[in-house]
C-alpha cells in the first residue's frame, strides 16, 4: 500500500504571506521538526524566519496545499514552489522534489502554473474588510517591539537596496493633510540632549536651509512648513 503524503505551506501570521512550501508524510512530526531545528540554531532563511516569529510570540500557520499517495509528490512540490515563487518571498533554497536545483519544467507543468496564476480570484471587498477588521486596533507590546528592533539591529543594507529605496522616494511629496497630521504628532515633543547631539553630528557639513547664506540672528531657520 502506498504511503500518503501532503504538500504544505508555512504562512507568516503577521502578513498572511506564504514563506515556505514542503513535503511530508507525517504532518505533526514535520511541523515540530521545524521548531526543533530553529530553536537549536540551524542556519538558513527558513529557520531565521521561524526564530523571528518565535521571538515575537508567533508560530507559522500550517496549511495543506495538496495531498495524495505514491511518487507524484515530487512533481507536485515543484509545481507549488514554482507557483508561489511568482508572488511570494519563499525561503525555500531548492526547487523541490528531493531538492533538485535548476529543474526544467515540462510544457505541461508551465501551462499548469500559468493557469493557476491566471485563475487566482481577486480578493473581494468583503474579504478585505474582514482582514482589516481582524487587524484593527492590534498593536505589539513594548517588549515585542524591543525584540523586533533588536532582531534588526546590525543588519546592513546593500547598496542596491539603498539605491532602490532612494529611487522610489525621489520626487514624492506628502499631501497637505499628511503634513498636518505629522506636524500635529510632533507638536509639543522635546528632544533629549543625546538626540540633539546626534542630529548636530548628522547635519554637520551640510548646506543650511537658507541655501548657503550666512545665518544671522534675524535669519534663524524654523521648522515651520518643514516635515
Please give a quick description of this structure.
The protein is of the alpha+beta class and 227 residues long. 46% of the residues lie in helices and 11% in strands. The protein has nine helices and three strands.
Instruction: State the helical fraction.
Output: 40-55%
Q: Catalogue the unreliable spans.
A: 99-103, 209-227
Q: Structural class from helices and strands?
A: alpha+beta
What is the CATH superfamily label of the domain at 4-122?
Answer: GIY-YIG endonuclease
Number of strands: 3
CATH architectural type of the domain at 4-122: 3-Layer(aba) Sandwich
**N-to-C CA distance:** 69 Å
What is the CA-atom radius of gyration, in angstroms? 25 Å
Order the strands across the largest sheet as they lie in space.
Answer: 2-1-3
Strand portion: 5-15%
> What is the arithmetic mean of pLDDT?
74
- Secondary-structure element order, as H and E? EEHHEHHHHHHH
The CATH topology of the domain at 4-122:
GIY-YIG endonuclease
Q: What quaternary form is this?
A: single chain
User: Main sheet?
Assistant: 3 strands, antiparallel
The backbone outline, from C-alpha atoms, is: elongated
Number of helices: 9
Q: Could you name the CATH class of the domain at 4-122?
A: Alpha Beta
